[in-house]
Every structure is written in C-alpha cells, then in structure tokens.
Amino acid sequence: MKHWVFPQVIWLVMFFLIVLGPLPSGADTCGHGACPSSHDHGGSSLESQLKELQHLREGIATLDGRQAQRQRLLALRTRFKELAPQLPERSQNAVRDLAHELEKLDFALVQDGEAGEIKRRFDNVETLLDVLALQATAPKEPSRHQGALVAKPCGYCNGNGKDSWGNSCKACGADGWVLVAPDAPKCGNCGGAGKDSWGNACKICGADGWVSVVKNAPKCGNCKGAGKDSWGNICKGCKGTGWAIADTDNYHGYYEFKPCGYCSGNGKDSYGNPCKCCGADGWVQVPSTAPKCGGCKGAGKDSWGHICKGCKGTGWANVPTNPSYPPHPGHPGNHAHHHDSWSLQTCGYCKGMGRDSWGNLCKPCGGDGYVAIANTAVACGNCKGSGKDKWGNFCPGCQGTGWANTGQNPTWGGPEASAPCGYCKGTGKYGWGSACPHCGGDGYVNTPTDQKNCGYCKGTGKDRLGNSCPGCKGTGWARCVMEAPTSRP
C-alpha cells in the first residue's frame, strides 16, 4: 500500500502541470493579475474613505432638525473610529482633535445648543477633515490650517520638523506645525518645549508644546502655572497643564473664574491636601453676576471649619448665569421656552393680596399675588380684569387671573435674576444656625427679572405665625423660579 501511494501522488502533480500549465508571470492567487502593493491599495482606499467622511459631514448641515443631524453625526463618528487606525502616524494630533470636536458637536446637538456654537463646531470638523485628507497624501504648507483652528510652531522640534537627532519629528509629522486653538497657551509642564528635562516627549501636551484650555483660564493656583508640585510630580490641580481646569466650556461667556473660597485660591486645604471644592486648582467657575455666599461670607466654610452647605465651599452664591439669556446647557436655571418679553402682573382675583376674601390662599396666582405674562399683558375681555364673573366665581375666560391667555398659577418662563432670600434675609441661616432650606444656605434665590415682593407675606418669607409663607414658599418673592441649585455647573 505504501509503495502505491507515492507514485500516485507524483502522477497527480504531473497531470495538473500539463493540463493547467504554469501560472502566468505576476499572477496572484485571487486571479486578477498583478495586485498593486498593499501600500498603494491602502492609500487609495484611505483617500476614498476620507472623502466619504467629508460627504457625511456636508450632509449633516443640510438636514432639518437636530435629531436628524445627530443621527447622521453618529454615523460619521462610527466611520471615523473605523478609519482612525489606518491614518498615518503624522496625523495622530489631527485624529485626536477631530475625535474631540465630534464629541463636542454631538453634545451641542443633544443639548440643543446655540446655532452659532454648532456652526463653529461644524467648521472645526470640516477643517480637520481637510487636514487629514492632505496629510494622508503628502505634507503641505502651514497655510492648509484654516477656519477656527490655526497652525502654531511645534514645540518639540521648535518648528524645524526634525528632532535633536535629525530624525523626522513625530509630534508634528515633520512639517514643523501643529493644529491648535488660536488661544491655546503653552504647556506648563514642559514650558512649551514639548519635552521634559530628560528629553522625553511631554505626556501632558502630547509633545507639541501646546495645551487646550478654556478661554481666559487663569494659571493654576496650586502649582502657579509650573505644571508640577514642589516634588516635581505632575500637579493634581491642573493635571500638568499649568492652567485652571474648567467646569464648563463657557459657551456664552457668562461664567468667570473666581478664587475658591475654601482654599483661598491655593488649591490646598489647611492640612495641605488637595482642595475638594475647586478640584485643587484654586479656581471655581461661577456666573459673573454671582455675589459672595451669604452663609459663609465668601469663606467657603462655616464657623466650625466645615465646608459651607450653601455654596458647597466655593464661597460664591449659585445664581442664574445672566438675567437676559438662558444658562449653559444642562445647568439648572432658565427654561427652554422663551418669549420676547415677560412681566409680572397683579392677580385680578385677589388684587395682589395672595388670599381671597375668606383668607384662603388664592388659587389663580398660587398665593403670591402675581401672575406671569408672556409678551404684551392684555386684560381679560370677559371679566375686564377682575378675575370674577358676575356671581363672584372664577372667570371662565382667564380662570381668575384677570389676564388673557393665562391659566391658574402660571409659571415664569422668562429670564432670571437673583435676590436675597426673604426668609433668612440673605444670611443663609435660620434658627440655631442651620442652613436656610429656602435658599439652600447661600442667602440668595432665583427670581424673575421683574422682581416683586410676595403679596401674601410682603417679602418676609413668613406668615403671621412665623412659618414659611405658603405663597412664595418662604423666598419672599413672587413667581420664584426654582429652588437653589444643589451643585456647581
């Protein structure tokens, strides 16, 4: 049997060689003749895939509705994740920036952000896609960087395109330029050199010498901008950048950096530990209109040295961002529905007293004596503004408010302001020193910009027995917008 198998195999091999003949020169196993090199194939595929991403991006802007735009954006992000590993090493900075911009654009669409902000994100994405398309083929001049991002000299190679050994700089892709935000400062950890004292690539800035921080960010209070602590370790407050870490992107410029009350801007508590109230960088972002906390007078701590419950240790009252515009998306404050103008008008049924003729809480206004009116205030035509019909019952036209196009106990939907809490008179405390439950302990409450004292308690926040006023819930103000926020933005 063994002697039979070997000759049979030889005959089979010869049969295939005679019948099929030798493979043509340059033929491949897939039967398509000479295959191009894998590098060439990958290059053309990469270029077409980048064009596909650009078409996806162009299609998003033409869609109507944020939901439709976000669905297309999710498709773009998915394709980009698949494509990112194929991009050359010199494009990794742009890959990182594009991933960041796509995330920011997604967030803006989800939060129904301002049209100007979304357009800026779209422009950044378009610029970065153009950069990737150019870097995938051949290096270009720094003029390729256009739009919201700009070219700045690479810190690692000092703009020369080569490292100290004469090799191509990996931080910028050998062209000497990196794409960063126009106001990007130099990295605090490496001083903009892109390398540490040992010559290794700086891990904080990615070796290009620049860091991305929020606009007008101050230097870190913990390390004074050095990016390191006294032991030479990376600063815990700024994560090595040398600049304060932002709590919000500050889209509309309504927030500003103010020194943390608890650590007095040093980033450390009295024991030398990282401050928990500011994140150890010594700064907090609060609305520009925020006054000092009434409960701790800006110290960030109570008389026992504990974190102030009113301001959560920041030293600043948590108030609406700006009285003429909604706050940052996701921050508690103004509602999404806004009209051209809002005003508070005296309740027709109780004549601003907050109670009816029997002394009961007035239902049409909720007990504070006022109703919120959007746009022009027009008296009800049925009751002529009295809020009652001829039998003394609630007018069916205005439900007792005395004003057209309103319902009972209407909520305020316009811009907000802040005012001292009526119950604690702005001190943030009541009783034996406990935090005031009506303002949250910081001494301030959110009110309509058209501020009116509660008609039921005349602004004291208390009824005749000293209990919380049922009309204004103890705040002392009519149509108080909301309870005090419980956390920083």
TrEMBL record:
SUPFAM superfamilies: DnaJ/Hsp40 cysteine-rich domain. The lineage of its organism: Bacteria, Candidatus Ozemobacteria, Candidatus Ozemobacterales, Candidatus Ozemobacteraceae, Candidatus Ozemobacter. It comes from the Bacteria. This is Zinc finger domain, LSD1 subclass family protein. InterPro entries: HSP_DnaJ_Cys-rich_dom_sf. Gene3D superfamilies: 6.20.20.10, Heat shock protein DnaJ, cysteine-rich domain (2.10.230.10). It comes from Candidatus Ozemobacter sibiricus.
